[in-house]
Write a structure and sequence with these properties.
Number of helices: 11
Radius of gyration: 22 Å
Number of domains: 3
Distance between the termini: 10 Å
Number of strands: 20
Mean pLDDT: 94
Helix content: 25-40%
Structural class: alpha+beta
Bound molecules: flavin-adenine dinucleotide
Shape: globular
Oligomer: single chain
Length: 393
């Protein structure tokens, strides 16, 4: 928006003392190529476009990254069939240079990896998304934008003083100690996006339910076993991609993430419990419906989270040389999973405004689902188009 309208005065408010403290700074660090998503969907389009824009940005701004590629590996006949489906999907989504890899050739791509068939995506890469976000923040400031940290938004109100008949009264963006005013507001609040939406009169649905994704770390002496991203074939019944091997920019290998209900919206550990968040979840019928549908797999995830060496069995299918002695607990991220009242997971972007004259000048991005880090530059273009249309710039 600042690039298109250099005279526009823009500010970002952020409740933490730095940018990228939540999902953007706690993710797998993968630059996704766009294989999985339904052809024609926003997710597919924005991911493929975002991949291209991201690599261009990394090269222009010297952001360290590595195109290590990705193998999606089938372990049984059912998954073998799905490799071909994924190849078709990826091709329809214009994912570049995908290759189907037969069993005997898997080792050519990852010497210690085993499987029945695989899909190779050479354009998938890795990067530190928190670092990328810091670059974005610097660009924004260099163009004249201001960033207010430690600024937790607690409400919005239309200011009473009039600016004359043609001008709109400003919207005050309130926090505990400070107040800023603006003509228009865009919110992208991740794990709190539903709460901000309610502040301008939007419906509570879709709600955000926090799902923690925990990683294990591979020991130094086994790091050489993994040089590329190794992913399972995703199970279509579940929304997440499954536990994968991911090389990090610092040379570590992360194994994960799993998916367990977090007891706080920013609950990075089991012992992080927020009573308000728990009460809200306990009152939300959608969550009961989801738990009922996924009761057995959900319990298995919790057991593997607590007794983490059990998770190693899943990893050994891909690299048999990994044993439970080679892993230790690693970091975790929390996904802002948008869910409707029937317990259905909302898979696409959701934009909302609210009621009254404030509602027509506020856009809430209520759901920016994975791979929104990869898609971020394409999402930014999409949102800039929306702001120009909705706010008539
Ligand atoms: C475990 C995990 C793995 C993932 N792996 C990948 C991956 O490999 N590749 C990929 O492309 N994507 C990945 N994703 C998805 C990606 O990280 C997210 O989709 C993306 O980071 C979302 O960005 P966001 O800005 O919407 O949310 P966030 O990064 O969560 O930012 C929201 C911000 O809003 C602030 N905020 C909230 N409430 C308020 C308030 N009241 N006032 C002021 N500020 C507020 C928060 O402090 C936060 O900084 C992963 C996500 C997770 C959780």
């Amino acid at each position: 928006m600042m690039i298109r309208h250099p005279n526009l005065k823009m500010a970002i408010v952020e409740k933490e003392n730095a940018v990228a403290k939540h999902q953007t700074g706690h993710n797998s660090g993968v630059v996704h190529a766009g294989i999985y998503y339904t052809p024609g969907s926003m997710k597919a389009k924005l991911c493929v476009e975002g991949l291209k824009l991201s690599y261009e940005y990394f090269c222009k701004h010297n952001v360290p990254h590595n195109k290590v590629g990705k193998l999606i590996v089938a372990q049984n006949p059912d998954q073998v069939k799905r490799i071909d489906d994924l190849f078709d999907r990826g091709t329809k989504n214009n994912v570049p240079d995908l290759e189907v890899v037969e069993k005997d050739c898997i080792a050519n791509y990852e010497p210690k990896c085993r499987g029945e068939k695989a899909l190779w995506s050479p354009w998938t890469g890795i990067v530190d998304w928190a670092l990328v976000c810091k670059h974005f923040a610097e660009d924004f400031q260099n163009m004249g934008g201001q960033i207010f940290l430690n600024y937790e938004v607690t409400g919005f109100a239309e200011m009473t003083e009039s600016k004359g008949s043609d001008e709109l009264a400003p919207i005050s963006i309130r926090s505990k100690h400070k107040c800023l005013s603006s003509k228009y507001v865009l919110t992208c609040a991740g794990l709190h996006s539903d709460r901000l939406a309610v502040m301008t009169g939007c419906d509570r649905s879709p709600r955000i339910v926090p799902f923690r994704g925990e990683y294990l770390l591979l020991s130094d002496k086994k790091k050489h076993l993994c040089t590329t991203n190794i992913y399972p074939v995703p199970d279509p019944r579940f929304p997440f991609l499954g536990v994968h091997f991911t090389p990090r920019m610092n040379g570590d290998i992360w194994l994960g993430p799993n998916a367990v209900l977090a007891l706080a919206r920013e609950g990075y550990r089991w012992r992080d419990i927020n009573i308000k968040d728990c009460i809200e979840m306990a009152k939300f019928p959608g969550l009961y419906k989801l738990c009922f549908r996924f009761f057995i797999p959900g319990c298995k995830e919790v057991i593997k989270s607590i007794f983490y060496p059990l998770a190693v069995k899943d990893l050994q299918k891909f690299i048999p040389e990994v044993s439970y002695r080679d892993v230790k607990r690693g970091p975790a991220g929390v996904r802002a999973q948008a869910m409707d009242n029937d317990g259905k997971l909302v898979d696409d972007f959701v934009f909302d405004g609210g009621k009254g004259s404030i509602g027509s000048r506020v856009i809430h991005c209520r759901n920016a689902p994975s791979p929104a880090a990869t898609s971020s530059l394409a999402i930014a273009k999409h949102i800039a188009d929306k702001l120009e249309t909705d706010f008539k710039f």
